[in-house]
Amino acid sequence: MSETKQYVSIEMTRRNVLAGGAAAFMGLTLSGLASATPSDVADLVANIAAGQTPQSGKIVLDMPQIAENGNTVPLSVSVESPMTDTDYVKSLHVFAEDNPTPEVASFHFTPMSGLAEVSTRMRMAKTQNIVAVAQMSDGSVFTESVQVKVTIGGCGG
Amino acid sequence: MLTRRDFLQVTAATAALYAGSNIGRVAAAQNITQDDLLSFDALGQVTLLNFTDMHAQLMPIYFREPSINVGVGEVRGLPPHLTGEEMISHFRLNAGTAEAYAFSSTDFAALAQDYGHVGGLDRMATLIKAVRAERPGNTLLLDGGDTWQGSYTSLHTQGEDMVRVMNALGVDAMTAHWEFTYGADRVTELTEMLDFPFLAGNVRDTEWEEEVFDSTAYYDRSGVKIAVIGQAFPYTPVANPRYMIPSWSFGIQEKLVQQRVEDAKAEGADLIVLLSHNGFDVDRKLASQVDGIDVILTGHTHDAIPAVIEVNKTLLVASGSHGKFLARLDLDVQDKQVKDYSFKLIPVFSDAITPDPDMEALVTELRAPHEAELSRVLGKTDSLLYRRGNFNGTFDDLICQALMSERDTEIALSPGFRWGSSLLPGQDITVEHVYNQTAITYPNAYRSEMSGQLLKDILEDVADNLFNPDPYYQQGGDMVRAGGLGYAIEINKPIGERITNMTLLSSGDSIEATRNYTVSGWASVNEGTEGPPVYDLVSHYIESQGTVQVDENPNIKVTGA
After folding, report:
1. What structural domains does chain A harbor?
2. Chain A residue with minimal CA distance to B242?
């Protein structure tokens, strides 16, 4: 079938492999950069905790299980708190364990904030855990993490 | 005690089906009648009729259920992860009977000679009209999606043939997945042509997160207010080209589903139905996490389960694919609770059902302009050709051979779609059959080079989309099909560790991570992929071969199944 062979070879990357890769496998474009590691993020969390042991609970970290587009992954975090003068969320930090720069965002609150709730979008280099850390006014620290996949393959039924 | 006439009818009361006696050999092929198929102990105020994943199959076909369909984690060995003999024994089917032919892969080619084709919209219409006549004012007909794609005529009419057929069938609501591969503009046009709601509560625009489609529709049946909530395939922009629907976002959105349920209750709904294209394992988990759903009509993973599966007071129905089955679920609803139900997954045995003349005429009209091409014979097969199953089917192996030959590559990759009809040994292969395997809107067959490492990464990635123990990470496709490449897979390992012993079959050498290999494939989700359309390529290859013979693929070693 000679006419079919006139098509030129195209350069294949992780992004344009069969049915998949829609979710922008950013590992390619970021590959020149060193990525962070889970232990880097553990160190960052330990810094915030300042000697406290991070507890689970209070944080709801809402992200898709599989990113539709690694360039802009929606992220919502809320922290349960009455947000009064004596009991409020001081700060909330989001880390990406395997991004070139693990610090995604930090948010600072006062009782006047009313709610400790934020929504934004972030870029993800590849499948990894996203970690949220909340520091409360009494010094206690809470943490939550979710795994978000950035896939290269897969074709739905 | 079930009788012949009950033919696989499973009711809440007859749990004995699991525990007990043989149903008794179902009548031989010549004795299966339309009345047998329709026989049902009606119950309650509501009759839900459901089909899903029809993949635009207007005509009777053959469809072989999978011989391998592995469940992982908590669902290992549970329906729908039962095939062949296990399926037959779990549901007390009888080997060699019509029911075994419908629900399992065992002796498929031989039983197909006895029991014939399945499906056909004119037969489906006959069954639906009969149930409506029996239950006027009680019946609701729901389409689980993947209806507009999968055939020559659907591709050439850009989904319009199926819209006309579904309007004629009197569908009450649908949800979607492959529908979206016609692109946002065309989907909008087609939904405007529908006589019924297109429900997709989990689709929102990427900028303002506003709803794109209605989420819920309400119906009154015999005084029961029914809420139908639509859930489109959550990973459409991941598994299919995102550039075709650039401003629509999907996702499972568990909290949003719970909210929709609460909203429906606030509207006074007595019965809440989720019309879902999540896939069975995703819906099984969703049912355990979201309260208040009475029925989930599942779709996407093409499972045909002869009984209702109950999870957290939710009834899960899995109606198969390709128009092969019509599910009937009768519900007795009292005080906003399902008090009793009766269920039957009716196999649409084409030879036993009188075609509905109106639908037959419409299908004939829709196919007439294309008839010459549809029936054009390309060659013949000496062996059974099928796709469905977790790993390479024989039709995929034929497609991979075509790709490697026509694009001159060492390796071919073909997507693990779950749609595509089967062909029996000795059958002619027509253009229509090729399109039944390949009719997509992004068909270009690329030629490229990939490193051994990239090939491994692809296999690992797709395997994790299929075998991740958390269903919410499963995309509901089967494993990518490989031509020219052998490998071993250990299903229960984590991503990165499942695939070993990758071998280039032409040389017998191990795949080297740093060497580049020539690779052909199709269904790339990336814009601008170059190459001939795969249906032309495969058609040309079959014509060049004349007769094909494809044996079961021995080059993929599966452990942990």
Report:
1. 38-148 (2.60.40.2470)
2. A22
